[in-house]
């Protein structure tokens, strides 16, 4: 509540969300891939959003590839190849997602997206409530 009051006081609406994703890609817990992510938007910025990802566990993936699709050009790709690797992408528009692909020796698949559905819902709820204030 104090955060919202402070943001209203300075005239800035911000939204945030933390989330994690994990999944097994094999038969053992050592194969677990896990990432933590945050998604923040500041209404007075253009473009307003920032997404960040931390690799908690690579499991049996050789690397994770974070990809931002740009409407006006080629996709922006970032390789996350170690546990503890961090990535922050600024300047995202609300309709853009940061897609995280897991790669093994012989396959590549979409692992998760930032914002997650939960982060997007929280961001929309906070954005609506700050607009009503």
From TrEMBL:
Region (Disordered): 113-133
Name of protein: Lipoprotein
Domain of life of the native organism: Archaea
Organism whose genome encodes this protein: Halomarina salina
PROSITE patterns: PROKAR_LIPOPROTEIN
């Amino acid at each position: 509540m104090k955060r919202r009051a402070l943001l209203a006081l300075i005239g800035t609406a911000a939204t945030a969300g933390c989330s994690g994703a994990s999944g097994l890609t094999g038969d053992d817990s050592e194969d677990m891939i896990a990432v933590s992510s945050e998604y923040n938007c500041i209404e007075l910025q253009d473009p307003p959003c920032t997404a960040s990802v931390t690799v908690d566990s690579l499991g049996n993936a050789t690397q994770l590839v974070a990809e931002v699709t740009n409407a006006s050009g080629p996709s922006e790709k970032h390789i996350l190849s170690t546990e503890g690797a961090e990535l922050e992408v600024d300047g995202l528009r609300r309709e853009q997602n940061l897609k995280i692909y897991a790669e093994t020796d012989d396959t590549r698949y979409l692992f998760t997206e930032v914002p997650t559905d939960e982060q997007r819902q929280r961001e929309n709820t906070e954005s609506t409530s700050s607009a009503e204030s």
